[in-house]
Amino acid sequence: MYLHRHATAPLPRYxxxxxxxxxxxxxxxxxxxxxxxxxxxxxxxxxxxxxxFCAQLCWYCGCHTSVANDVSRVDRFVGRLLREIALVSGHAxxxxxxxxxxxxxxxxxxxxxxxxxxxxxxxxxGFPLRADAEIAVEIxxxxxxxxHIEVMAxxxxxxxxxxxxDVDPEVQRAINRVQPTELVxxxxxxxxAAGIAAINADLMYGLPGQSVDHVLRSADAVSEFGVDRVxxxxxxxxxxxxxxxxxxxxxxxxxxxxxxxxxxxVEARLVAxxxxxxxxxxxxxxxxxxxxxxxxxxxRRNFQGYTxxxxxxxxxxxxxxxxxxxxxxxxxxxxxxxxxxxVDADRLPTARGIPVTAGDRLRRAVIERVLCDGAVxxxxxxxxxxxxxDALVDxxxxxxxxxxxxxxxxxxxQVAATDTGRRYWRALAACFDPGLAPSAGRHSVxx
Length: 447
What we know:
By secondary structure, the chain is an alpha/beta fold. The chain contains 15 helices and 21 strands.
C-alpha cells in the first residue's frame, strides 16, 4: 500500500547506529588506535577493503570512487593499502580470528591480478583468517578478465557480487553503464568454471526511464543466471552531494508512486522465481546461508547490507572505509590524498567517528532486529544487554502514526510491521532513533 508521507520520508539506511552522518572529528587517530588495541582474543573480526577507483563513472553511483586515469595511480594506492594493513594489524593482532573479508569500491578489479593477490596475502599475514572465512569481491562484469578470475579462485575467494542494475540498453545508456546481458552471463559461467560458485547480483529501481516492466525483466534475467542472492536498491538522486548525478536527466526519473510500484513488483517477481525475501532489499535462495540465518533469527546488518557474519568487530581499509569496533565507529579519510598522506607518515588515516554508549547499543540492537525481522521484542532485547526497556518508551509516540495507518502494531513490548507495512521497515526502525532530524539532503527516501 502506497502512503506518500511514509514512502518519501528521508531516512538513514541504518547500516550503523548512530548513523554515519553523526560521526564527528572528536574521534581522532589516538582514539582509533586505543580502540583497536582493545580488540581481544574473544572478538572475531570482519575485514573490509575499499578500492576507490573505476574504469568509468556510472552516473547513478553514490559510492566514494573516481576514474583511475592511469595504472600507476592504482599501483600507488595498492602500495599504501599494504602499509595501512600492516599499520592496523599491529594494533589488532590479538583478535579471535577473521570470519569474512569483503572487497568493495569502486571496482576491486581495478587492481591488477598480482596486486589483488598481494593485498589478500597481506590480510592473511596480518590477521588470523579462519579456514572457513568467506572472501567476497564486488565485481563490475565489464572489467572482469580471466586473469582476475584465476587469481581469485586460487586465492580462496568464495563469493562474488556482480553489478547488473538493469538489463535494458536504454536504461543503461541513461545511467552511463552499457553492459550487455550476454557479457554478464558469460562472466558468470567463467566464474563457476573456476570454482567460484556463490554469486550475487545487484539490481536497482527508480532509475531514469525505468518502468515496472524493466525491473521485472531484470529480475527474470538474474534468476535465469541462477544467482544465489539478489540485492535490490532504490536509486537516490542527490546531485548536490554527488555532482556526477547531474548528468542524469531528472525529468526521466520515476515519481515516488512509480518507485514504490517498481519495488513491489521486483519483490513479487523474485519471490515467484523462488527467492526468499530477506530484510528490506535482499533476496536469497532458500538454502543459501543468508536465508537460513533469516529463518533462524540470526540475520545481521552491516555497511555492506545484510549478512550472516557473526563477527563482533569490522575493520575497514582504504579511503572512506568505516570500522565498527566494540567501543565505537571510525571512518578513514574520504579524500584519497589525505588518506595517502596519513599512511605515508605511518599514521592511522582517521577522519572522524563516534563512541557507542550502552544506550546506543540497545537502540542499535532494536533497529537491527526491526530491519532484519520486521519485528522486535523490546523487553527481550533489553534483557539480553542488561538494560531497562523503559529507556525505549520515547519510541511509542513516534510509532503511533504507523499504527494509525495500519503499517505497524504494538502489543506491550512487542512491535512488528504488518503485512501492509512490509515496505516501511525503515520508517519503523527510525522510530527508535531519538536523534533523527529528517533532511532531504542527507538521507535517501524510505522506499
